[in-house]
Structures are given as C-alpha cells and as structure tokens.
Amino acid sequence: MGAAVKPGPGQMGETVLDLQRLLTMANQIGDFFAPYPPERRAEGIRNHLRTYWDPRMRQDLLDYIASGGDGLVPQVLEGARLLVETEHDKKGYYGPPKA
Amino acid sequence: MWAELRDLRDGVDLGTPPRDGSDVTLTIDGVSVTVPAGSSVMLAAARAGHAIPKLCASDTLEPFGSCRVCLVEVEGRKGYPASCTTLVEPGMAVRTESEKLAALRRGVMELYLSDFPAEDIPGGWSEFHETLQRLGVTSHPYGTGENHQASPVDQSNPYFLFDPAKCIVCSRCIRACEEIQGTFALTIDGRGFESKVAAGQDQPFFDSECVSCGACVQTCPTQALVEKSLFEGEYRHAQSIEA
Amino acid sequence: MPNPLKPERSVVTTCAYCGVGCGFKAETRAGRIVRMIPWKEGKANHGHSCIKGRFAYDYYNHPDRVRTPLIRRSIDEPWQEVDWDTALNHAAAEFRRIQSTYGTKSIGAVSSSRCTNEEIFLVQKLARAVFGNNNIDNCARICHSPTQFGLSATVGWGAASQHFDSILQADVIMVVGANPTEGHPVFGSLMKRRIRQGAKLIVIDPRRTETVKSAHCEATVHLPLRPGNNVAILNSLGHVIVRERLYNESFVRERCEWNEFELWMGLVGSDRYAPEVIGPVAGVAPEAIRAAARLYAGGPNSAIYYGLGVTEHSQGSTGVMCLGNLSLSCGMLGREGVGVNPLRGQGNVQGGSCLGSWPHVFSGYRFVTDPEVRGSFEQEWGVPLDAEPGLRLPNMFDAALTGHFRGMYIMGEDPVQSDPNRHHIVEAMRQMECVVLQDLFLNETSNYAHVFLPGSSSLEKEGTFTSAERRVNRVRKVVEPLAGYQDWEIVVRLMNTMGYPAQYAHAGEILDELARLSPAYKGLSFALLERIGSAQWPCDENAPEGTEVLHTKTFPRANGRGTFMLTEFVPTAERTNDRFPLLLTTGRILSQYNVGTQTRRTANSRWHPEDRLEINAADAQARGLRDGDWVTVTSRFGQTRLRAKLSTRVNPGIVYTTFHHATSKANAVTSDLSDWATNCPEYKVTAVEVARVDAAPMRAQAEAREDEVVEAVS
Asked: Is the separation of the CB atoms in C141 and C349 below 8 Å?
C-alpha cells in the first residue's frame, strides 16, 4: 500500500505523500462536507481538492480510488468522481468553499 | 471617539486626557481657546500654547491633583485651584502666570528639592528637572531634616530600578499600573511622611505581581523609576535590594 | 554618574513580537539601542507596552548572532565560514542541481511571520518566479491558516473585522482559546480597561487563565471545556440562540443568505447540540452554555476575540466558521464594538497571510488556479507561472520522506522546534539534500541545514508589518544589519544568483510592487505611511487612508452577503485511553515569545527559566507527584521531560505546558493530526500519560542539553 517506506538515496516513492496520510486528509474533508445535500457535498469536496491540493496528491488519490478505494468515506468517492468528470472545465473551481 | 487614546501626540503632554465633547470656549491669559467639554483647564492651557507646569499630571492618566504645582487663578473665584482637576466652563477666564502663582510654585518645588539627591539636581533631563529649570529653581533654603535619601534602591527587576530618594510620591506610577496596565501591583504604603511607593505587599518589584510592562517607568516624572540600560556601570547607591 | 545618560537619537518603528503591532521609539546612544519607548501615536498601543517590546530587545546584539555565512557539504560536517558570494553560489547551484535531478517541484520555500511584508512577498516571488513552482508556505500554516479559511468562507475576508480600540464600545467580550493578558498584553490591558468600565466577559478555554480572573477583572461566564470540544460547544451556543430565538432576524435577512441560515439552524438547532447533551461531553455545565449564549446574543455590542485555542485543532477551520456563524446570526458585525477578531501570535501573521506565502494563492488572496490573476503576475514578473497549487509546509516534509522533495529555503523559521511530531520532521530534514536557512541564530533546524545565511533583526531593516487589526505599520532601520544585509537584500541576491534579474533600490519599491498586485494593499506606500503613520487594509481609492471596521455595508463575497457554514462536530481521532488518560494542551506566558529564540537571550528568562507541566492536584496525587518533580510526558508519538507544577488552573484530566524552551521539546509528543482544511497541526490536543522520574539524573541531563545548545550556538 503506497510509499510508507522511506526510499533509498536518490529514489522516489510511488506517491508524493505517505498514502495513509493522504487518505486520512481526504476523509477529513469528506467528514466536513457530510452534512451538505448530496450535490453540494460532491462539489465542495471537488473544489477543495482542486483549489488546495498539489495535483500530484490529487492524482495519487484518484489512482488509489481506481485500484479500489478501500477505507475512503463515500462522499470522497463522489467528490473524486466529479473531479474527473469536470477535469477540463476548471472555471469556478477556485475560491473558498461555497455554502 | 477614544479621544483619550487617539488624540495623544508624541512629544506633547496635554496634562490631562483629551476628551470627546461639545465645544467650550474660554480664555487662557487672554487668549481665546475652544476645547471639548470635560477637558481640564490644564489641557485648555496646553492647547492655547500656555502649558502649565505640573508634576503629578499626565495626559495618559486621569487627573489626581496632588502635586500643587499646576495652580492657576480663575476670574471670579477665590484661591488657587489646581488646573488639572478644574474643568473648563464657557466664558471662564484663567490666568496661568502671576507673581503670586510663581511664588507658590517655587515654594512647592523647593520643598520637593529639599528631599531630592543634591548631586542629581544639576545635569538632569527628567520632567522634574525640566520643571525646575522652567521655574528657575536650582536650590532650596532648607537645612538637612528628616528625609528619604538613605532608602535602599530596589534593583530587583532586571530592566529598571526604583530609587525612593528621587520619588516625590505623585502616584503616577500607581495610577499607570491601574489605569493603563490594569495590574494593580503598586500602592502607597504608610501615611504622611512615611508614605512610599510599594510593589505588591511591600515586596521587591521582581517578587511582586508587577508584569514589567514599563508603564510606571514611562510615566515617572523624576526618574526615580528608570531603565537600567541608561546607566553605565553600577547605580550609585550603596544599599540596594536585589532579586 | 548620578543622572541617567540621555539617548542621542530615536527612530519610530514597530515591535516585532506579537500581533498587536505596538509603535516604539527606539532610542540609541553611540550606535547602540539603549531604550525602547512606547510611541504615544502608535494606533494599537497609544503609548503603552509590555515586557517584551519594551525591554527584551537586547537579543539583537547577542554574541550568538551569526555574522558570517556558513556552508557545509553534509549535516555531519562542521560549518565553514564563507563569504556571501560563495554561500549564495553554493545554495543556487544545489537548488538547480536538485531540480534537474528530481524535477521542478522538488524544492520549495518557507517564510515567517517575523519577516516584513516586503520579504514575505519576495519569498513567494522566489518560489513562483525563480523556483518555478508553488511550493511556498509560511508559519501561519501552523497557527492561523484556519482563520483565513474559516472567516473567508463565512464573512469573506480572513482577517479581523475591527480595530483594537473598537473593544472600548463592546458590552460583551467573548474570548475563545486565547489568553490576551499573557499573549497579547497591550490589547489585554485595553480589554481589562473596558471590563473595569462594566463590559461582561465570556471566556471559553480549558484553563482558568489569567484572563479569567485577575485584579478587578473577572469573567462573568467561563466555559472550561475539555480540549477538542470547541465545535461542539460553539454549536451548542448556536443551539440556544436558535431555540430561544435570540438571533437577529432582520440582520440575517438584510445582510446574509437566508437559505443557508435555515440550513444552519437545522444543524445546530437539532437536539444533539442541546447544552444538556453537549455539556457533559465537553465537561461544561449546560446552564453555563445557556448563560454564555444569552449574554452574547444580548449584546447590544458583542465582540469575539480568539486565538490558537480555536485554530490548532483537527477542526480548526470549522471552529473559526462557528465564530463566523455566531456573529452573523446575532448581527454582531459591521459596526464598532462587535466583530470577530483573531489574535495573532507573531508580528506579521496577517501580512504572511495577505502576501501570498501560500501554495494556493498569490498575494491578495487570489488563486493561482485563476488564469486572469495568474496573467497579471506573469506580466509583472516576466515569467510563466505554475497553474496548480503547490505543497503545504507539512506536506513538504511528508514529501521529503517519500523522496519527492529535496531542498528547502527557510527564512526566519525553526520548524524542528516549532512544528508538530518532531521525529517525523527530523527524519524529513535528514532526507533533504540542501536546506538553506536564513536566520539570526543557529537553532534546532540549523542542525539539519547545509547553508546558513545570517539575517537581520527587525531593528536592522526597512519594511512594513501588518498587525492583527489589519494595520500596516512601518518597520524602520534603527541600527545597521550585523551581518551586512537586510533580509530582503539577501533574497534579491539569491534570486539574482539563480539567474532571475530582480532589482530594488529600497524596500519601498517592493511595497509598491506588492501594492500593484494585491487589491487590499493598493493604496499603500512608504510615502503614505510616512504621512499618516499607519493604515488598515483595505486601503485603496475608496479608502485612501485605510478601513477601520469591515463589513459595514456588504460582505466581500460575490453576492455581498455573509453566509453560514454547516459545522458538524467531528471529534478528533486523538483520544484518551487507559495508556494515555490525560489531555495535554499548550499556551504562552507573558515574558517569553514562541520558541524563545529572542526572549531566551534576554533577562526575560529570569521570570520563566523553564517550561513547566501544569497538572491538577488530583491527577498529581494519583501519580505520586509533588510540585517541582521531574516527570516524563509520553504520548503515542514520543516523550519529553518537564517539571510538574501543581495547579488549580487546569481541571482533572487536563495537563498544560508552555513551549518556549528548546529543551522542553513539547513537540516530541504532539500528534501528526491536523486541520481538515488547512493542515494546521492539532497542537492543542494530545493524549498523554505523566509519570514521575528520579530527579537527579533528569536535572543533570537537562543541564547537559542546555550546555549543548549553548555550545552549538557559541
């Protein structure tokens, strides 16, 4: 599961962050948006990932989801799906979370 | 709003806190001046360019009226009221200089001087020294009587010292600790001649509730409370209190 | 020498300690600073001061100051003194080598809230325009990043809504997770002045702080909650406001998004946030929660002041949103005497926030993902810029451990001492191939650095700070930089050495550039500050001398309305259990400042020579502890040793310490949990166990370590 192990000198791990840490961060975001109605929930998570996460972290999350996504709360999966679906439509992604 | 804070100016001491209020016009030595209601005569005089000598007053503290230096004459009133505690009234006519006032002020300053370290009278630059210079007082007619000149210097605080020999018990330090800082660490201990500034339960400053904000040092008119960094080498008094 | 020596010269400047931003006249004699006099025209201090700004300035001239650049090939080698060109060439060559081997994104930069606005702006330019990535962050990440996030989400701007003097019109003052009389003393004095005039005080804090009770100042209501329950308690206040209909309906209808208000009412109004439910969980009497809510809603003017006790939690941003929600619901924004105000720990946290030392926003809080905004920076800087957010400070360390991040430029920060989960940080630092540290003193982080660039203190440079009340104050050079250069000059030289042609004749030109690129700072210049002393942003054509109170007519959001966020309480994953039954939380003390780099090098240490662990007598007794005993504090993440102080300030189950001394290693025990939105570390909640250790060897060890530190820096 990812790159919890330190790479040797000159080597780089598979993911930018330790995967467990990345998943914890994703689930925390999911927990915040949980009380919102489903559509806004997914949008909120997508916007957050798009605006605040290094793109390599986003890609690592998407790769993990593609390989099964175990342990992620359902709304993170919804947000990630929306992130992929609207990848080329970047307008309106940025900014603080919209209520 | 907040005139008492926002109308303070660097290098200017109006003597009592600026106020917010409707205009009141009066004359100071014949000069007409308009100040907000609630202002003191002392402040009006400073605004009129006729600053009145004073020791226990400062525009960062509420007026106290203890030093008896800021006396004035008010037309139609008996006596010589303290200008710091006298509020302005419309049409009031105030005199800040007269022979009688000069004599009264000189007398008070001579009394202060009689219990002040003789070697520190020349060459000083404190408010007290500036007032002496302004009033032309350089000596006093009194012999050596009972005094506070042998009191130990409190050097317990690493940053400032307190030399009771220079203290005129004007209470500015105590009021600064209460009104500005809000710590209430200083009091006047004892009565009459025995009264002196004390930290906490008459403790060294360092051991008291003092938080070393420096407000007392900042307001002390005589440099009885003074930054140690302004001295090279040891402070002169033999007897002192350490932390 | 009977009378004191009279200073010869004085320069008006701004204190670099806490975020109050006091004005001082620095007085010199024979080229040395002999006195700091509080400036009567300082808009935050009006001639008042505290022990730090007034007296603790001598660190600037301390023998420990590094005066020559240092380099070394590996961190196991001793430092070598070199000239500036050699040091800068080495740093530049290493950064370029790392980037060509591991990619553009393999290096990054960190600036500090002790830097001036101009320096913070330049460091973001270094990362974005010279490194070519957005790996730029600052220490606000670990203190007030949730403020920017939470307040901008609700009221539009992540900044204090008021000026400090506004508190003199408050009828109710609510202090949450802050201890102003210790942390922000000059503001604390102003607050106490207002309380003596009759204002009511609500304190929400696990500890019976000095703010809760002192001479002539006592809280009307104190909610001593268990650490980690802020959101629960604040939602419960909301519950009372909603259920008892204490909210200001006309304000919400006129100024806010009503639909969102209804959604919020649905959340906090639900039974699960009733004081009778939350009280027992949070360790607070339900009636006290009700009393606090009624008092706050009743005003008529209620003002909130909060600190790191709100932000440094895994729900830090949510906690800040709760404060935004509460103030909007009761209409406590947009006039004097009300508002929501973060108390910032360092002199320029607000400036650090404003001026783009974030991986996702440029200066002026404008997003790197916004092509229009990016275009304006590309035009000004003449290079293409990265369109994607970079790594945050904690993520840089995370990425160092996976080999993706190899080099770091750090200005004025000591992450090894100040960042959480020390073992993790040290491991990460060891993985890096080039760490360039620019600072006054060698510190814990310099043990892992390859290049040390000796910086200048705030007494040695020109620039501006933005205080916690959004006030931009001038910082002026009082004495010459000890190592020859002002910090901004060093950054410019590094940029040049890396091949980027930046040039400024003086710091004022940097302010001009950042004013062009940051809307709220548009009207600022050295000339304006020379004329009017200071100005609160926004300062532009609509407010040429700045803005004291925000949100008077609209909120700076797209539709001009304030909004409500759904702030569900999510308990932290950091829980007590049989092994770690106590909750450790942290705070500050008056005489020391943060990690103590400056204040520990002054006589201030006489008041606070060591950090102590405050523990309730009941917990102490259960562990056989007496006052002054050495104890181990052990968490899931590590262990440290402190001396115990029996105290009634903390309730049973809670222990508390300050974190000013390197030897205390408070961060050896703090967790790796962080805020969901910003990764601000959860410093305020760590489950620990405390045990007595044999005193003598501990003391010897601590002393040996103290010697080591002294040796390392001398």
From this structure: no
